[in-house]
Amino acid sequence: MGITLPAFTPAQNSLWLTLCGRALDSRLPHPFLADTMADEIVSKVGYDLAKFPLLKSKLFDIAMRAKKLDEVARDFIARHPDAVVLDLGAGLDSRVFRVNPPATVDWYDVDFPEIVAIRRQVIPQRANAHGIGADLNDEQWLNQLPSDRPAMIVADGLVPFLTQDGLVSLLTRLTSHFTGGELAFNGYPKLAVWVVKHYPRAFGSIADGVVNPGFDDPLEPERWVPGLKLVEESFPTRTPEAAQLPLGIRLVGSLVSGLLSRSPATFRRVSTTVLRYRF
Ligand SMILES: C[S@@+](CC[C@H](N)C(=O)[O-])C[C@H]1O[C@@H](n2cnc3c(N)ncnc32)[C@H](O)[C@@H]1O
């Protein structure tokens, strides 16, 4: 089985890494995220998981950052049942089914038009969930969204594919459009960007789409966009789930954490983080 896919750009190709990561996680005896719909989507599309030979080593990060962003969205919705939720660079993620918002919430998955067209073929429809096909660098797409409701904006894996000017411009437009809300995304330390660029075997053509330099200080976005305030920085490696990692990885992890625990700035440079801001 499978569907006919258009040629993808390197940035679009990155959606397979995260989708396949969640699919593989769901096959573990004790999955971290348990997103079985991701595995169904991979089957429907007919994508070959073997295209990412080193995917197993990234499962924990991919699953845990998705899990944290789900939690952040769920928590915001519990406080604001009239919220709008935006998943920017949604790829083929079916987060709306994991978060399962009430009917009072409007959910918008935004990605390039060709990706949103594929979403419509492989992800079930859901009331109050809308696909917006747009380049996030365009200024028009935001105008179709209500501006007077609390907004929860999540972006999982998007940042590396926006230039620094594009990222700052997007964040500025989002925070100006909505009267208030929260923004959450996984941080990209400069080292992570360097690794993607220098290990093509692990990331394939995706490296060519990475145009953001990354940033190490979670307070930096506050300086880019007036009105943004960091409210949470979380580290998947410091969650109870990290205890399920194989012994070797845990030993290296605790050694690194131990060595770096006195220097949060250094720890950030080597660790996956999920950052949450209020505006
Ligand atoms: C690493 S993937 C993550 C996909 C999804 N969030 C997930 O976790 O599976 C990055 C996504 O950002 C999208 N993207 C990158 N640049 C974009 C842009 N300028 N406009 C719209 N989408 C973009 C890509 O098409 C891709 O789907």
Biggest β-sheet, characterized? 7 strands, mixed
Helical proportion? 40-55%
Radius of gyration: 18 Å
Bound molecule types: S-adenosylmethionine
Give me the number of helical elements.
11
Structural class of the secondary elements?
alpha/beta
Give the domain tally.
Answer: 1
CATH class group = Alpha Beta
The CATH topology assignment is: Rossmann fold
Overall 3D geometry? globular
Kindly describe this structure.
- By secondary structure, the protein is an alpha/beta fold.
- The protein has a single domain (10-278), classed as Vaccinia Virus protein VP39 (Rossmann fold), CATH 3.40.50.
- 42% of the residues lie in helices and 14% in strands.
- It has 11 helices and 7 strands.
- The protein has helices at 10-26, 36-45, 59-79, 95-99, 113-122, 164-177, 190-198, 200-203, 220-224, 247-260, 264-270; strands at residues 84-88, 106-111, 129-133, 151-155, 181-186, 229-234, 274-278.
- Strands 3-2-1-4-5-7-6 form a 7-stranded mixed beta sheet, covered by helices on one side.
- Helix 6 links the parallel strand 4 (151-155) and strand 5 (181-186).
- Helix 1 (10-26) packs across helix 2 (36-45) and helix 1 crosses helix 3 (59-79).
- The chain is globular and about 45 Å long.
- The relative contact order is 0.14.
- The mean pLDDT is 90.
- Bound molecules: S-adenosylmethionine (SAM).
- Residues 11-12, 14-15, 18-19, 89-91, 93, 111-112, 115, 135-137, 156-158, 161 line the site of S-adenosylmethionine.
- S-adenosylmethionine is lined by residues 11-12, 14-15, 18-19, 89-91, 93, 111-112, 115, 135-137, 156-158, 161.
